[in-house]
Amino acid sequence: MQKVAPPAPAATRPLWVVILCAGLIVGIAMGIRQVMGLYLTPMTKDLGIGREPFSTAMAMANLVWGLGAVFAGIVADRYGAGRVVVGGTVATMAGMYMMYAAQSGFDLLMSGVLLGIGVSGTGVTSLVGAVARAAPPDKRTSAIASLGMASGIGGFVAFPYTHLLMEFYGWQASLLMLLATTALVLPLAWTLAGKPNAGSGMVDTQSLGGAFVEAFTHPSYLLLTIGFFVCGFHVAFYSVHLPGFVADHGLDASVGVIALTMVGLANLVGTYIAGQSGRFIEKRRGLSLIYFGRCFVFLGLLFLPITPAVVIGLSILLGLLWLSTVPLTSGLVAVFFGTRWMTMLFGVVFLSHQLGSFSGLWLAGYLYDATKSYDMMWWVSIALGLFAAAIHWPIKERPVARLELLEAKPA
User: In this structure, what CATH number is given to the domain that contains residue 225?
Assistant: First the structure.
């Protein structure tokens, strides 16, 4: 069933404006999220706690992000992304202040909850639907890829920016400065205000409940959701614990900063390639290759000598495979179900990603405190990478029957 969509303010804005503003929001939000690992060593040392409480707080942030992404997606799909961005920005600022004032592991846990709520409203997941609806189908994957590239640029800038703030002003004062930086997102939210429409003059009138039922009875969607768990496990573990891994091998802290910065830089190339790859290779196969490729990076960290060149070189390789999963995964959601409930449905997939993040962060902290080594975590990451490569292969890349009938009907 279909009907003529009423005009919405957001739909009148050119695609480049939507991509630019959404990209700036994502760049700031995701860049700040990615630098939290830099605080692991100084915070745990000054507060006199082990790595597990900090790791658990960051794990909680990722879990809340995943849960919040589903609800943020519902609001964004119904009322527009602008108000979601504002709420997320305020929550992020509150979380940073709580982290600044933390005196215990419990305080860190509460800051993690607020940071998770914040990024659920300002990260890629909350804006993927707005960008997808603004773009025509033939440009949709590359438009979504621009958000992943913006996240990479954010990390590329945020790591040296935060490192310098910590060096000159200390870790506590640097958090207040990051809080002020986050406030720059607020005026950008206006450009994404307004109820969304399909952008084509026709809209799918499927209900929220119908969308859930359809998604959870769709085998390929379930495989995609399970596979994205592994992406979250890999990314969260590496980004938070690499500085500690570097320190354990007697390398200077700057090596971790440079390595994670290079992850962000290489991510620009990898995400761009992924955004264009849909023209030449099925998205499901691209995802399988990405997860398989990550296994070689983790093997390198197990068997190669840990030197600055090795860590930075392997980080560049991993960066090529970092957020390149996002345009392919979200693009498959759009292929399956269209864009009506895309933000929410990708939010469900992303919840699995964040369950993976929570698992990776908690397990890394637990195993490290138990063994004083990350070796077991590298092996677990390799096993999960092989599992993800296998589980994406049988995905069927085509729309559901309902969507095919809808698109076949005349306007």
Answer: 1.20.1250.20
The pTM assigned to this predicted structure is 0.78
What residue numbers bound the domain in which 219 lies?
A: 11-197+208-394
1 within a domain of the structure (yes/no):
no
User: Per residue in 262-302, pLDDT tens?
Assistant: 988 898 899 889 988 877 889 999 999 999 999 999 999 99
Number of domains in the chain: 1
For residues 38-62, give the mean pLDDT: 84
d(CA 112, CA 146): 27
Q: Is residue 256 part of a domain?
A: yes
